[in-house]
Design a protein that fits this description.
289 residues, alpha/beta, Rossmann fold, 5-stranded parallel β-sheet, two-stranded antiparallel sheet, 7 strands, disordered N terminus, SGNH_hydro_sf
């Protein structure tokens, strides 16, 4: 599986996911993430201010399969401020997929840089180069998290451009629906409406993390999905996001337990899985109708 922060490709075992091309038992996923803010530790930065990749424990899984670390120039430490890369979420998606689908081989790449919107990614051109240089099954796009509320017209333009590029490369485009700020839960309805409109206009699929987040938050208000800033995800929040990605990318009925240590009871873990699966399936049904 290949993960690029903001783009994504997928491939898996036969009859589990509709696969374009023959890549064997593997899942290629790329994330191209647009982050509002990224605070790099200067002690860990290389030339041109690009952070040298930190090597998290999870990276060993990816390296064993692919010979590469999961992140190309993207830090995985505590100071990063992206909804995609926080808590190393793309690698968690890869680990969950491998654990849930025996025989799956997964590689993760992430493309992200600080202060980015999808417009900035487009103008930089790196995503287009990655699309042209490798074969991808799916690409997941995440714009800066407030843009669906304050800059939807611009977001739509660049989602459309990327969707055209992704489809031309033979991959399937996905949009990472994010969540409302902790102090503004009412804005979730506007975020959902924005993403549904983007999907209708561009033909992209939606990974409905924001919907699953909102439902779990309402049912388990004592479990905090947010960091103290009221925006970025705790480990539980990132786990919820990863599970929603897994159910959106793969046609599976369950996610394997024990992949990551999270402070939840088995009852709450099962509830989280059920919410993520239901949200993903409802979104797939909506897109297919």
């Amino acid at each position: 599986m290949r993960l690029i922060c903001g783009e994504q490709q997928i491939q898996t075992l036969p009859d589990r996911i509709a696969v374009r091309g023959a890549f064997g038992h593997s899942l290629s996923t790329a994330y191209a993430d647009a982050c509002k803010e990224r605070k790099f530790d200067t002690a860990k930065t290389g030339d041109h201010g690009i952070a040298r990749p930190l090597l998290p424990t999870q990276g060993n899984l990816i390296r064993r399969h692919t010979g590469k670390w999961p992140f190309n120039g993207v830090p995985c430490g505590a100071k990063q401020h992206c909804y995609t890369t926080r808590n190393d979420m793309p690698t968690l998606v890869a680990r969950l997929l491998e654990a849930s689908m025996p025989g799956m081989r997964v590689k993760a790449d992430v493309l992200a840089f600080g202060g980015a919107s999808l417009a900035a990614h487009w103008n930089r051109g790196e995503v287009q180069k990655r699309l042209a240089g490798q074969t991808w099954n799916a690409v997941v796009l995440q714009d800066q998290s407030t843009r669906p509320l304050r800059a939807l017209r611009s977001m739509q333009e660049y989602v459309r451009r990327f969707v055209d590029e992704i489809q031309a490369a033979g991959a399937r485009p996905y949009l990472y629906m994010t969540w409302a700020r902790k102090d503004d839960p009412a804005s979730q309805a506007k975020i959902v409406q924005a993403f549904q409109g983007l999907a209708e206009v561009t033909g992209a699929s939606v990974i409905p993390v924001g919907l699953a987040w909102d439902q779990f938050r309402n049912l388990r208000p004592a479990i905090d999905l947010y960091e103290p800033d009221g925006s970025h995800p705790t480990m539980i929040g990132s786990y919820l996001a990863a599970c929603t990605h897994v159910f959106s990318l793969a046609d599976i009925d369950a996610v394997s337990d024990g992949v990551v240590e999270i402070k939840l009871s088995s009852v709450d873990v099962n509830l989280l899985h059920e919410i993520c699966m239901t949200a993903a399936r409802a979104e797939k049904t909506l897109r297919s109708s």
